[in-house]
């Protein structure tokens, strides 16, 4: 897999943005995109950080696939002292914490526990979910 070119370093921090059709197979592809971005742009980030980023990407994209019909966009970018993950989808609902059961309910608490900041922006025709993680 080859990533689209990142933004120039002199314009703003590097980011990658990928559109997906919303099919369940895009979850693994989204993880791959984030992993390649981390390898190329944040090799100094060690410890469990890369695993945490991939887990948050998986959870946010999974939520979009399960609860929003249609396409979604994943953006991963460098932030001062961390990384930003944004998922834009066409679903009208907001993520919320529910009682975990055999079919789910664990993802949103995981995202909230790993991120220093989580923000949901309702938009016409969908929403954007943003998460920021520290190095």
Here the CATH topology equals: Heat Shock Protein 90
3D shape: globular
Structural class: alpha+beta
Level-2 CATH architecture: 2-Layer Sandwich
**Subunit arrangement of the protein:** single chain
Helix content: 25-40%
Task: List strands and helices in order, with pairings.
Blueprint: E1 15-20, H1 26-41, H2 49-67, E2 72-79, E3 82-89, H3 107-114, E4 117-123, E5 126-134
Antiparallel strand pairs: 1-2, 2-3, 3-5, 4-5
Helix pairs in contact: 1-2, 2-3
Organism: Actinacidiphila paucisporea
Protein name: Anti-sigma regulatory factor (Ser/Thr protein kinase)
Pfam families: HATPase_c_2
Structural summary, described in words:
It comes from Actinacidiphila paucisporea. Keywords: Kinase, Serine/threonine-protein kinase, Transferase. One of its GO terms (molecular function) is protein serine/threonine kinase activity. The protein is of the alpha+beta class. The chain has a single domain, classed as 2-Layer Sandwich (Heat Shock Protein 90), CATH 3.30.565.10. Helices cover about 30% and strands about 30% of the residues. The protein contains three helices and five strands; from the N terminus they run E-H-H-E-E-H-E-E. It has a five-stranded antiparallel sheet with strand order 1-2-3-5-4, with helices on one face. Helix 1 (about 25-40) packs antiparallel against helix 2 and helix 2 packs antiparallel against helix 3. The longest helix is centred in the middle third of the chain and has 19 residues, at about 50-65.
């Amino acid at each position: 897999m080859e990533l689209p070119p990142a933004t120039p370093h002199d314009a703003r921090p590097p980011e990658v943005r990928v559109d997906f059709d919303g099919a369940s197979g895009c979850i693994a592809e989204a993880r791959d995109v984030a992993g390649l971005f981390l390898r190329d742009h944040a090799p100094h980030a060690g410890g469990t950080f890369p695993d945490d980023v991939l887990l948050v990407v998986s959870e946010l994209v999974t939520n979009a696939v399960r609860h929003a019909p249609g396409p979604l966009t994943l953006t991963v970018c460098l932030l001062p002292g961390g990384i930003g993950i944004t998922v834009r989808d066409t679903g009208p609902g907001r993520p919320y914490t529910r009682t975990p059961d055999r079919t789910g309910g664990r993802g949103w608490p995981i995202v909230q526990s790993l991120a220093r900041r989580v923000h949901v922006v309702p938009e016409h025709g969908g929403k954007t979910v943003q998460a920021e993680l520290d190095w």
